[in-house]
Write a structure and sequence with these properties.
3 helices, 3-stranded mixed beta sheet
Length: 82
């Protein structure tokens, strides 16, 4: 997708939000420079959130605690993980 500027995002926010909800990624520019990237929330986050709501897990934004049966995809970014 072609990057969009902040002015266009403000004018058509709902349509871009709908695109993200359908799975697209949206790059936003400010004065021609790419700044944020809007992406859909990963399914793993939804699973963790549902475990938290059911009191099956605790999460303070770092590594989730007491969670079983959920695999997070991707490379490890911290030395804190085995």
């Amino acid at each position: 997708m072609k990057p969009i500027n902040t002015k266009e995002l403000k004018a058509k926010f709902r349509s871009y939000l709908d695109r993200v909800l359908r799975g697209e990624k949206v790059v936003i520019t400010d004065h021609g420079k790419e700044v944020p990237l809007m992406v859909p929330i990963p399914i793993e986050r939804h699973v963790i959130r549902s475990h938290m709501d059911a009191k099956k897990a605790k999460w303070n934004g770092g590594k989730p605690e007491d969670i079983k049966g959920v695999r997070i995809k991707g490379k490890i970014l911290s030395g804190d993980y085995p």
